[in-house]
Amino acid sequence: MKNPRSLLLPVAAAVVVVVAIVLLLVNLTRPGTPGDLSPEAGFARDMGVHHAQAVEMSFAVRDESTDDKVRTLAYDIITTQSAQRGMFIGWLQQWDLSQASSVKPMTWMAGHGHAAAAGVTPGVMPGMATAEEMKRLADAKGQAAEVLFLQLMIRHHEGGVEMAKGALELAERPEVRNIAQHIVDGQTAEIDLMKEMLATRGAQPLPSILK
Question: How far apart are CA 134 and CA 132, in angstroms?
Fold first, then answer.
């Protein structure tokens, strides 16, 4: 009669082989560390800059407005986008990539043919306010500041949504795709809210940049 332990050896060996194969397949299908020119790195860098301007705009109106809804919206944008920007910085550190790049903004989309389809100009992040518009916002007072903020932020969010949709199509890392979907959902909802807030002030959004 065979030793029971000897009967278990082939089974154990087979289990080891199966586990090894599974681990190998997991490693082969898991996205690798993004490179310097990858969509993941480009999205993290560009969206970080994009978010920084949104935070600056939100601080400007929060300090000027006395309207609770406007101030709440500004606070939400400040906290949400500051936290997301911290995540982008953390990703780049984790991937051992620099925070800045000599590559022009939006190259990560243009290089994959997505920029033209989305109406994005290579080298220019969509929805960004100009220096002149930022100065106007900083100098605006009262309801005029609220209207200008809402108009600029709607356009800014439209650009953010386009960038996030590009990341959803091009990025392979699940954490990047996850935050990109959050941006699409969250900023789309805020666009609708800001349009309603503009309407209550008898104002209209700027021409949409969305295609």
Answer: 5
Rounded CA gap, 5 and 191, in Å?
67
Q: Within 10 Å of residue 9's Cβ, how many Cβ atoms?
A: 10
115: which 2 tokens?
A: 């920029």
How far is residue 159's CA from residue 173's CA, in Å, rounded to a whole number?
A: 22
CA distances from 86 to 64, 121, 174 (A): 26, 26, 17
Largest pairwise CA distance in the chain: 94
> Tokens representing 129?
């306010």
Q: What parts of the chain have a pLDDT lower than 50?
A: 1-2, 4-9, 11-13, 15-30, 116-117
- The three-state secondary structure class of 206 is coil
DSSP-assigned letter for residue 128: P
* pTM score: 0.82
**Residue 139 exposure: Cα atoms within 13 Å on the Cβ side:** 6
Q: How far apart are CA 20 and CA 14, in angstroms?
A: 10
Tokens of 62: 């929060």
CB 53 within 8 A of CB 128: yes
Q: Which of 129, 111, 110 is nearest to 121 (CA)?
A: 110
Q: What count of other Cβ atoms lies within 10 Å of the Cβ of residue 23?
A: 10
What pLDDT is stored for residue 210 in this prediction?
82
**Phi-psi domain of 171 (left: phi exceeds 0; alpha: psi -120 through 50; beta: other):** beta
